[in-house]
Design brief:
With about 300 residues, the chain is an alpha/beta fold. It has 2 domains: about 1-130, Transcription Regulator spoIIAA, CATH 3.30.750; about 160-298, no CATH class. Helices cover about 40% and strands about 15% of the residues. Strand 5, helix 3 (about 120-125) and strand 6 form a beta-alpha-beta unit. Helix 8 (about 230-245) packs antiparallel against helix 9.
Length: about 300
């Protein structure tokens, strides 16, 4: 299989076939992000010839090792930005070479569906696109603007409602600490207010980890922004869990989280809150800071 640079995928896509169709990010302006800094370009689409060759290789794997993936995950920061006809062509090839495929997922930006009509989104749903992972980061408009996300909370509501109408399910990534020191809990409440109007299958919380090659690091050096302390980050997550009123899976998985947790809301709310209370009450700030400072890579 053909891959370029570091390949990122959500934890829950571990059993998916990873297919490169894009590399990098169309936006590439978020102040905190360093995920694609190892590339010497911002974004490009993989050629259809290479995509087809990778699918042929996957087909051979199926024959040799009884490899029958039920799901294909398209790699890159936001493959869903591709034009509908291109996404449909990719889906057709996937179903041809890997007929066991039931659904096709990928990362997506909030704005990727903006230029797709309701009819196009419905066509993509019928072609198997489902379970997109969208890094909404927060519902705090001040934080979204400061971090150069390129959208506001109203765009999250509008575009995800369109996905709901098309029958395309989605998962959210929430970025703990994006609102900055002293604003985490208010940012969590704003995020819960947005999420409670939508239907995310999962809400995954990742903790902001700032690296020297990020623009946000420079903002901190200039005194323009302050990071939350580690225990404040856990109080922020607690506030988010406490204020979510929709049925969804809530998880804090991945390397950015010193303590990992997962549960189904609302059923597991009390259990999740108890775990968070224990962390907040018993784990020293210095221990959590040591973890953050020694996290070399996400």
């Amino acid at each position: 299989m053909h891959y370029t640079g570091t390949i990122w995928r959500p934890p829950y896509e571990a059993d998916s076939l990873l297919l490169e169709v894009t590399v990098g990010c169309t936006h590439h302006k978020c102040k905190f992000c360093t995920l694609y800094n190892d590339l010497d370009f911002h974004f490009k689409m993989t050629s259809m010839e290479i995509i087809e060759n990778d699918l042929k290789e996957a087909a051979n794997e199926r024959k040799l090792f009884s490899f029958n993936p039920k799901r294909v995950f398209l790699t890159g920061a936001n493959p869903f930005v591709l034009k509908t006809d291109k996404l449909l062509e990719i889906a057709e090839m996937i179903h041809e070479y890997v007929p066991s495929t039931k659904s096709i997922g990928c990362f997506a930006r909030v704005t990727d569906s903006t230029h797709k009509t309701a009819e196009e989104l419905s066509m993509l749903s019928k072609a198997g696109y489902d379970g997109l992972t969208i890094g909404i980061e927060t519902g705090d408009d001040n934080a979204l603007r400061f971090m150069n996300k390129g959208y506001e909370s109203k765009d999250i509501l509008e575009q995800c409602a369109r996905l709901d109408q098309a029958g395309i399910h989605y998962n959210f990534f929430y970025l703990t600490s994006i609102s900055g020191k002293g604003n985490g809990e208010s940012g969590a409440r704003a995020t819960a207010e947005i999420c409670n109007q939508l239907h995310p299958q999962r809400i995954g919380a990742n903790m902001l980890t700032i690296y020297p090659d990020s623009e946000l690091y420079q903002e901190i050096q200039r005194g323009s922004w302050q990071e939350e302390e580690e225990l404040e980050k856990y109080r922020e997550i607690r506030t988010l869990v406490e204020n979510l009123n929709i049925p969804t899976i809530f998880a804090a998985l991945g390397a950015s989280n010193a303590f990992q947790l997962q549960g189904t809301l609302p059923k597991d709310r009390a259990k999740l809150l108890a775990i968070l209370d224990q962390i907040i009450g018993e784990v020293p700030e210095k221990e959590l800071q040591h973890y953050r400072k020694n996290l070399r890579h996400l």
